[in-house]
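hi! just following up on the protien thing from before. the input was this:
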Amino acid sequence: MKKIHILCAAALVLTTSCEEILNVIATTPTFSVTDTVYDGQTQQLQKLGTCKYAWSTDSPSIVTFKHEEEGSKVITYATFKLTAATKPVKVSITAKNAEDETVDPVTNTTTVRIWTVHFFKNNGGDNWEELPGNNNPTVNEAGTYRAQMVAMQDDNSWERVSVINYKFSLTGGAENGDLKWSTAGANDVALGDTYANFTVSTKGTYTFRATLGDVTRVGVLKYQ
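and the predicted 3d structure came back as:
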């Protein structure tokens, strides 16, 4: 999992009293978000403070908030949606104590990454070779292939995505998101959170549509 911005309670114990710790938890709008998110993704903003939160962002065209009541708690989610961006975009999210303006706000940043689908060929075991042609390769042999989610890095290269963090707990445990796939022409499709394995046995076109939130990317593999 990517580094998560969290307040370390263990460190606080070493430098503050129990009363001070309880005061921090009760008044400071501390929260966490992963360092990296993906275009179309929704992620829970994990709160550590028990105060009432007020949310804002420096990128309202990219980040939107949704709140759900769960008993006496309010669960907040952020959805990240790039519009005209052609490279990763760093955004900031700020939480304020909605009932006490004297408390300093808390700001965390994350990078919203563009993603697409690339294809890989299985060469045995867990050996997956990326195919030239990115999301539109042509192959000339049958075998097992993979349509894989990849994200643009800061140097414009593409890196495979293994996990889409959706919900996580400061005490451990996580719930990952996944891509929604639709396929045409493929046989024996086996889905993972961020990939689709399939068998290429007959010549033709194999089309994969991967969707995250309301963002869809298409990859097409041709066997000739």
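Residues 60 and 91 are 9 Å apart (CA to CA).
Residues 1-14 have pLDDT under 50 and may be disordered.
cheers
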